[in-house]
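Hi support team,

I've been running sequence recovery on a batch of backbones for a student project. Most finish fine, but this one hangs at about 90% for roughly twenty minutes before it completes. I'm not sure whether the input is malformed or the queue is just slow. I've pasted the C-alpha cells below so you can try to reproduce it. Let me know if you need the job ID as well.

Thanks,
M.K.
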C-alpha cells in the first residue's frame, strides 16, 4: 500500500473514532455539566450555539508529535467543538505550534477558521468539559480507550507532549495499555521532563493555563523549547 493510501485509511479510521467519541455518554456527571453549560452559556457567547458534546482529537493523520491536554474548556472547546479552540489556553498553544511550524496560522477561534496542523495532532485525556476542570478518576478511565486507539492509529507518532501532570499520567497509562514497557516507579512529571518508552518519547510541559502563563511559570520561550525538542525527537 502506498503511503498516501495508508494515510487516507488512517484518516478514515480516525474519523470513525471521532464519531464514537462525539456520541459518548458514559459519564453522567460530565454529560449533565457539558449540556448545562451549553444551555446556560456565558454572557459573552449568548448568541452562539454551543457544541455541548465530547470532543475528538484532531490534526495531521501522519503526525509524529501528539499534544495531549487535560480536557475541553467549558466555554472553549465545549462551545466551539474543537479542543483548545476559543479559550486563552488555546490562544497560547496555537501561537506556539505556529511558531514551531506545527500549525499554518497562530490562532484558532472556531471550527472552519482555516487552522491546519502539520505533523502534529492535538487531543485530550478527557473528552468532555469537567466541572472546575477536575475529572474524576472513573471519568478518566472511561476516556482512556479513546486515547489508546488514537495512539495506535497514529502509527507515525513518536513524541507525546504532555501539557501538565494529568496528561503525563494519562499518557503513561495509555502507553502501558498499548503494551509499551513503563518503568517502576513511573517517571515523574516536571516541565522539560523527558523519557523514552519504546518508539515513544514523552515530554513534560506546564499546561498553558492562565494560572501558569499570567504568573510567568510558563513563558513563550519555555514552551518553544519543549516544541523544538519534540521536533528534534520526532526526527
Amino acid at each position: 500500500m502506498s503511503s498516501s493510501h495508508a494515510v487516507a485509511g488512517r484518516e478514515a479510521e480516525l474519523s470513525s473514532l471521532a464519531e464514537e467519541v462525539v456520541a459518548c455518554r458514559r459519564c453522567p456527571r460530565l454529560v449533565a455539566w457539558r449540556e448545562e453549560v451549553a444551555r446556560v452559556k456565558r454572557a459573552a457567547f449568548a448568541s452562539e450555539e454551543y457544541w455541548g458534546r465530547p470532543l475528538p482529537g484532531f490534526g495531521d493523520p501522519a503526525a509524529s508529535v501528539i499534544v495531549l491536554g487535560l480536557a475541553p474548556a467549558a466555554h472553549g472547546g465545549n462551545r466551539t467543538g474543537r479542543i483548545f479552540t476559543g479559550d486563552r489556553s488555546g490562544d497560547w498553544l496555537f501561537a506556539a505550534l505556529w511558531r514551531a511550524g506545527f500549525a499554518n496560522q497562530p490562532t484558532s477561534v472556531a471550527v472552519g477558521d482555516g487552522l491546519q496542523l502539520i505533523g502534529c495532532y492535538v487531543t485530550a485525556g478527557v473528552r468532555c468539559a469537567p466541572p472546575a476542570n477536575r475529572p474524576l478518576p472513573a471519568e478518566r478511565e472511561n476516556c482512556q480507550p479513546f486515547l489508546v486507539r488514537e495512539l495506535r492509529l497514529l502509527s507515525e507518532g513518536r513524541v507525546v507532549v504532555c501539557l501538565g501532570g494529568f496528561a503525563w499520567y494519562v499518557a503513561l497509562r495509555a502507553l502501558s495499555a498499548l503494551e509499551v514497557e513503563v518503568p517502576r516507579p513511573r517517571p515523574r512529571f516536571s516541565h522539560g521532563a523527558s523519557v523514552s518508552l519504546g518508539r515513544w518519547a514523552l515530554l513534560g510541559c506546564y499546561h498553558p493555563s492562565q494560572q501558569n502563563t499570567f504568573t510567568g511559570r510558563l513563558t513563550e520561550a519555555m514552551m518553544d523549547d519543549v516544541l523544538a525538542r519534540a521536533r528534534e525527537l520526532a526526527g
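--
Follow-up from support: It reproduced on our side and the slowdown came from queue contention, not your input. The helical segments are 3-23, 28-40, 77-80, 88-99, 137-153, 165-177, 210-213, 220-234. No action needed from you.
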